[in-house]
Sequence to fold (335 residues):
Amino acid sequence: MNIATAKQNIKTKGFLELEVNPSLDLFAEIEKLKKQKNAIILAHYYQEPDIQDVADFIGDSLGLAQKAASTNAEIIVFAGVHFMAETAKVLNPSKKVLLPDLNAGCSLADSAPADLFKKFKEKNPDHVVISYINCSAEIKALSDIICTSSNAEKIIESLPKDQPIIFAPDKNLGAYLNKKSGRNMLLWNGACMVHEIFSLEKITKLKIRHPKAKLIAHPECEEAVLNISDYIGSTTQLLKFSQTDKTTEYIVATETGILHEMQKINPSKTFIPAPPNNSCACNDCPHMKLNTLEKLFLCMQYELPEILMNEELRIAAKRPIDRMLEISRVAGLIG
Ligand code: 13P
Ligand code: SF4
Fold:
C-alpha cells in the first residue's frame, strides 16, 4: 500500500496501515524521530512494556495531563487512549497531538453519551457535576470539575458538605468515594469493562493459596473486590504503595500493563495479576492494547493520526480540567 492510500485509510481504519521493515530497530528509530521532530512520548502504565520502555514519561491520568499541559515539545505522541490524547490537546492546543490508533477508546468513556448525560444533568439543576477524566470532551464540557482517581477525594472535599453532586461516569469509583467521603453523590451508571471482570471467588481462592500476599486494587473495581482489598489507589498510588510497603507478594486488581513498572521498581517482589471471571487468563484493556510499537513508529514518522478538536468544545472542556489542576496544586498533589 502506498502512503497516499494509507493516509486515506486512516479515516476508516483509524491508524496507518503500512509495512514496517522487520529488520528495523524500532527503539533506535523512535529515539531518532523524537530528536528530529522535537516529540515527546507520554505513556500510560497500561501500555505494552515496549511502549513504556520507549516513553519519555509514564504516568497515571493526573500525571499525564499535567505533563501534557507543561511540555515544550512540538509533538505530543500519546500512548494511551482517546480521552487522554484529547485531554492533551485541550490543555496544549498549539501542539500536534498524535494517537497511534484512533480506535483506542474506553468502555467507561463510552458509557456516558453526551446527549443522555445532558438530560440527566438538566433533571438535577442544583447539582455540581464532577466527572472522572475517563470521559469524552463533550462530557467534560458539561462538567464543573474533572477528577482522576489520584485526586478525587480532594476534589470532593473542596465542595461544601451539603452541596449536591453528580458523579460521572464510573459508578464503582463513585460508590467508593461516597463511602470514603460520607456524601451521597448521585452516580451515573457507567463502568470500566476491565475493572469489572475480576472474579471475587477466584481472588478469594488465590488469597488462600498465597496467605502472605496483599490484595491491591484500583477504585474502578467493584465494591465486593474493594471490600477485601488491603490497599486501594490510582495506578501511581498502587506503584508507590508497592515500593513503600514491606510485604513481598501482591495480588494486583487492575490492568496487567502496570505489572511491568511494578516489577521493574521492585525486582525482588512477586506480583500476581488478579484473576478475571472468564476462562481466558487475561485482564488486558483491549483499547489500551491497540497501540503497538509499530503503530507508534508509523504515527511518529508520518505525524498521523492526529487529534483535532473544535475550538469552542476545547475551551468548554478546558475549564473543568483547569479547575481540577488548580485544586490539585493547592492540595500539593502536583507541582
Ligand atoms: P489512573 O492511571 O489515573 O489510575 O487511571 C486508570 C485508568 O483506568 C486509565 O484508563
Ligand atoms: Fe477505559 Fe478501563 Fe481501558 Fe482504562 S482500563 S482505558 S477505564 S476501558
User: Anything to note?
Assistant: The first strand starts at residue 39 and ends at 44. The domain at 3-104+288-308 is CATH 3.40.50.10800 (Rossmann fold).
